[in-house]
Amino acid sequence: METKFNSDERKRIREGIRLKYTKVAISPEGNFQYPTGEAGLKGQNYNPEILKKLLGDILASYCGVGNPFSLGTIDEGDTVLDIGCGAGVDTLIAATMVGPKGRVVGIDLISEMLEQARENLRKTSLNNVSFQEVSAEGLPFTDASFGAVISNGVFNLIPDKVKALKEVLRVLRPLGRFMIADQVLTVKPPEEPRSMVENWAR
Amino acid sequence: MLNKAGFIDYELVADTGFNSSPVTKGVLFRARKPKDVQRRLDMSSNP
Q1: Which overall architecture, per CATH, does domain A7-183 show?
Q2: ipTM of this complex prediction, to 2 decimal places
């Protein structure tokens, strides 16, 4: 669905997302209709051998809607961008996969979530990860920077999805992979999409 | 939307079973960037 929102609507959308995810940054438990934390990871069949490499209290931050890693391989030496990284669980999982010769960047717009991501990173010995407060609609990376882009439960929250998708395309290398878990509507969108603004992040 | 943005090999792979509301469902998508982006974008705008 493509809808152009004005600056006030975009501000209200962003505020709605912020209100929800500042609570999620403290703990995802009770904030979603589906399992979170280790139960969520198990429910989405994340590789247990990979999960063993991360502490339980990092895994407790997980609130994804699927497993992007089930869509293709992430190899040693790869460069990966995680859009809407939240507390960084998928970012850190990707970092264990790419190894010291690879690089992973996680981006998010919620500073509280990024704070949790950086805290989770400090609990590891990984040195191939960075986090940035950046919008997917305007990525600050040069063309063809990444071999893979992942995202988990985020694109539904982005106001200008086509713009964000074009940015993903731009920063991917030729034949690079986009692997995404997300929420889609199962009913017809409202006639007036602007009515969705107030409930955007629900 | 993936096609419009210029991706190739896009597919809806599966439902995830993690649904955020009664009117939404979790799904998995994947796609690839073409080898020659400009040619792909030209083909999209000139069918």
Answers
A1: 3-Layer(aba) Sandwich (3.40)
A2: 0.84
